[in-house]
Design goal:
Number of strands: 8
Distance between the termini: 87 Å
Radius of gyration: 24 Å
Number of helices: 1
Largest sheet: 6 strands, antiparallel
Order of helices and strands: HEEEEEEEE
């Protein structure tokens, strides 16, 4: 009996030691999950459209006029067309925009020479590609 009691104490001790050293947060990479940018609102008279020469992987405050929908944007001195929309990890933390306005405040990020993404609170990520076409008026 002494052997089985000794083994039980050893296993119990090992279990307690291991459980005390682990927590659910140990499996998370806090730098890559969850929103990282604060929600923005449009400031009247202060249109945000990013720099003329954006750097890759740097999010810039950006406002989109949504009256005719979101099909085109001008960023970094050229026109971009909406290519796709994806759901995924939110990049912007905070309350979603008001549905009353015709402006959407968020962040535009140049991913590569032919790829940019727009993120805003409560919205899916919008992927844009450069285009030679210029947008027409509302239909």
């Amino acid at each position: 009996m002494k052997v089985s009691r000794h083994v039980a104490v050893l296993l119990l001790s090992a279990g307690l030691l291991l459980s005390g050293c682990w927590s659910p947060s140990d499996n998370r990479d806090d730098d890559s999950t969850g929103p990282t940018l604060p929600a923005r609102t449009v400031v009247e008279g202060k249109w945000q459209d990013g720099p003329a020469d954006p750097k890759q992987h740097k999010p810039y405050p950006y406002d989109i006029y949504t009256h005719c929908g979101i099909k085109w944007v001008k960023f970094g001195g050229r026109w971009w067309a909406l290519d796709s929309v994806s759901l995924g990890a939110e990049q912007v933390k905070g309350e979603p925009r008001s549905q009353r306005g015709q402006w959407l405040a968020g962040y535009m990020t140049l991913i590569g020479p032919d790829s940019a993404v727009f993120d805003a609170a409560g919205m899916p990520t919008m992927h844009f590609v450069p285009t030679e076409d210029e947008p027409g008026g509302c239909a």
